[in-house]
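Lab meeting minutes (informal)
Scribe: AK
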Amino acid sequence: MVLIHGHPFDRSMWRPQVEHFREAGWRIVVPDLRGYGQSTVVPGTTAFETFARDIIGLLDHLGLDRVALGGLSMGGQIVMELYRLFPHRVRALVLADTFAAAETEAGKTTRRAVADRLLRDGMDPYAAEVLAKMVTPRNIQALPAVAAHVLTMMRATPPEGAAAALRGRAERPDYVEMLPRVMVPTLVVVGSEDEFTPVADAQLIADRIPNATLAVIDGAGHMPNLERPTQFNTALAHFLDALPTGPATV
């Protein structure tokens, strides 16, 4: 199983899933995307196709043919891009707190403006501003370690890498028309209180993909895998257990 982090995070956002599913016998691959975490920072614009080809290169390096592939937020959109380009490499999809539509013109302007702001001001002001949308305000108070982890990831992200991804994200294709052609088992997950990608966005994806399963994680915002790891892992485990073959072949 390969899990792709969102923006502006790194592979450590999947720590609860790595610990749980490795113990259950799965091989878990959690890369840092280009420009994030410990990966190489390439300024400019990073297209989603570039991210997808990076992941395919990693799978080739590891000798992995077909994988269960999941991603959260921007990571979910990169997963859809990879499936668009390389459907034969995917045996199952997990799309968490993401949306399939292309960016609006207003959205493109906003993403480019945020990219410029990150380069100008660094990550700290942005991280402080969006924390309460990444994690619900209630969970910031109730789960201070989770809030601190999310804030640390955002602050540690290289501004050049985050800006390049935002510019690429502004130009991503529309995946909505592709969804009915998804021919692998798919789990769609969303936090019930997600402001960035509300339940309606997840419902649209689940409705369009044949036989997709929708799991709404109560009491979570944009990062249910960290805010409610037990519930998230339970939903993911039920999905994985129902796949045609067991974890040993993944």
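Next up, CB showed the second protein from the same session:
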Amino acid sequence: MDAKITGTVMPVLEVSLNPGEMVTAEGGELSWMSESIQMRTSTRTAGASGFFGGLKRAVGGGGLFMTEYSALDRPGNIAFAAKLPGHIMQIPLRPDMPYLIHRHGFLCGVGDVQLSIAFQRKLGAGIFGGNGFIMQHLTGTGQAWVELSGETVSYTLAQGQNIRVHPGHVGMFEASVSFDITRIKGIKNMLFGGDGIFLASLTGPGRIWLQTLTISNLAHAVIPYLPSSSGESRSGGWISSAANILTD
């Protein structure tokens, strides 16, 4: 098996498989593949023992169904492209070093890949955290590839060292890192600061990876330019009017 990441802003992962080798990915991740690659879709993959195991994985942002791509009688290639501008990272998997990943981060993996929801150790993180605090738990033996949005900033936290992060910027961290939520102090800060009410609180020891682009910020940035029900741009009808004049 050979893997290569091509590109910069919108990278693609290309995996070359020899006969008998296999890569596991969520449904919908496939970009292209050679005709020698065979597909098998099931809930009984990536550590799930059946439908309910797949359902638990789906709650964490993964797919209910996972797809295994394998080369049977001759070598083949398969590619998985990034969905957002950012980076694709390769991480080694060991049973004694699980990772927690943002809910849409897992791209694919080879070997004994086990993907499920990360149950919060503290009740408050699960109840009040929202979707930004739902994480994927990734472990096993082999290699995995994770997609992080925007640029990636990594910190190694010492024992007891803490960092507070907007939940959308939490990309991935080692399971040795303690994860909780904390409330932003000050009523005016919570109501008018625009940063929400809760932040992720990450405490070492362990390594964390933060992502600079959040899906919510990207959505808010493009909403003004999307057409409204009348067909005009939300940023102002003058844009559509000017475009009509130029094309007449």
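CB comment: The longest helix spans residues 237-247.
No objections, moving on.
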